[in-house]
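hey so i finally got around to running the thing on that chain from the lab meeting. sorry it took forever, my laptop kept dying and i had to restart like 3 times. anyway pasting the input first so we r on the same page abt which one it is
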Amino acid sequence: MAIDKMKKVTFLTPAKASQRLLKSLHSLGVCEITDVLSHYPEFKEVFKRPEVVTEECDANLQKVQTILNLLDVLSPVVKGFIQGLAPVPLLITKEELDYALHKFDLENVYKEAQELDIEYRKLERAISNIENQIAELSSLEELPFRIDFFRKPKKIKLIFGKILYGNYELLVRDEVVVKKCAVELIYPGRYYRKDADKLEKPNYNPKDFVFVLVACLPNDLVDIQNRLKGYAFEEVSLPNINGTVRDHIRELKADLSTLKVQVQEIASKAQKLSIHRRVVEVLKAFWENRKKMVLARCLAVEGKWVQILSGYVRERDLTKLQETLRKEMPEVSIFVEDPQPGEDVPVSITLPPLVKPVQLLINMYGLPPYDFFDPSPYLMWGFYLFFGICFGDVAYGVILLLASLYLMRRTKPYEGVYNFSKLLYYASIPTIVCGFLFGSFFGDLYKPEYLGENNIFQKIMESTTILNPVDQPVYLLLFALFVGVLNQFYGIGLKMYGMIKRGDSAGAIMDGLLWLILLPGFIILVSGMFVTPPGWLTGIGWILFGVGAIGLILTQGRDQNNPIARLISGVISLYGIVGSYGITSFIGDTMSYCRLLALGLTTSIVAMSFNMIANLLKSIPYVGLIVFVLVLIVGHLFNFLISVMGAFVHSMRLILVEFFGRFYEGGGKPFEPLGFNSDTAILVNGENKK
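ok and heres what got predicted. didnt touch it at all, straight out
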């Protein structure tokens, strides 16, 4: 249960056998290939990089991607519940892979998909063009005149545009305009009512835009246009069409309907192609992995007769690797050595089933460096405890347990989603325990006013309740702060462990132990502001605080050469501006654990609120009981979903920020062995496929 021990391996192979070596390593799936020159930079002057060609891979990937893109647009897959939770890898059997590679006619399917894709894109462009035309013409749809007639007059000039109605009234009173041109307000159909005899002028506001048609002699055109600009007249270019705008839009819509029918015909043909989707996805996974294998040669170096490849392998897989190469490729020499200090070694972590789900939190933050330690087993108790306090409710815990069991059964082949489900499964247990201790079962649904006097749930909950957060929030607050203090001390202890593991015992004392001496003394002294501790306890507090403070002042500025700067840095480090920690950091991080009280109260109070609302509606004649049950179901389902998300997020924050900040450093590079299995596809036995 730790970071797997790695071995650095170097392969010396005849140049003509290099491709076969990569295939063997790919089939084994135990060795990560790395750049030879990063380990042996001196080889740069002696060897060269091998030539790598990926044309076959790229050509086939282009074909399968064309097919999949078409299907995604015209025949998308309806994702199931499990696929909707998170991206899951494609589970592929060897039989499927053999069929896809040797029996499936990719070329013909690609040609058909390509033809459909070309036709579909052509139709989409035409549809987009028509829709744009309709959008541009929509504002002119109500114009009552034919657009081609607008351009017919030869002896006069017509100007069409829009203007604010208030400016229009000023325009028609302009003597120059009235003398030199004719101005007519265009009444669109939506602005007037029409009966058998007359048109009624609509009631415009001064800030309404109206359409106006202006007629003038050609010699007066420039003068009139300048005059119109003074009234904020905006000239509108009319489209080059025949007939009215309304008729043209009607024709465009008819063309649009025809094009959409053609798109549906293409979609029907694509639907028939969708029967090949899985085979194409299998081919995509294969060629992506094949391309990775080919590109791995870029990390090698070669001479005239030999090629050198390097990488990392887990110590437990080394024997398997050596035996396989000895049997299949005896001409290959393999050299094994331990990684050197400071080397960027990939990290692989092997955990037992009980701890494995917690690695999800580690992956969110980042893997530890190779020379550090895996924090997964050390954060388990904290995360589950925090989650239980935030979400503490017996009924909600049971629902979470059953839901997570269902998800575990459905997602077993998918490691990521399965481990998340298992994490929720383990978290449901402290949720149920805290629910009993805090007296919460769907909030207070067990009380007599809801389920009757002396019901079985009431007896059970009253016999197990130790602390009711709603009635005694101060006690839960004190408990949350106590947990926060312990977790901070625990994190400092882990920091010491990590430094000792790296051989820095002096740093463990100066950056860890001294804080574990100062902070308890600080807590004792601060508690004197709220209670009166015994004199001997106050004395111990001063001693601890003094010893810790002096030690930190003398050591936290040890990287400074100047003695005065070293002393000043040590003093400032007590506050937390510089140095490994700080009193303000301790206070701030500890206060963050108050969220345990806030989340726990929220879960209970919201549940109780829905119970009260349902109970008020229970008295409705005839349907009261049905409404009562429906409100309870909907309300508690809502509270369950919101509270479980809140409990997970805030518990994770307390781990990743307030806890990890004390000791953990990420930055580790994950171990990624060359092989078919990846985040997108996994090669399984036929019987394991679901």
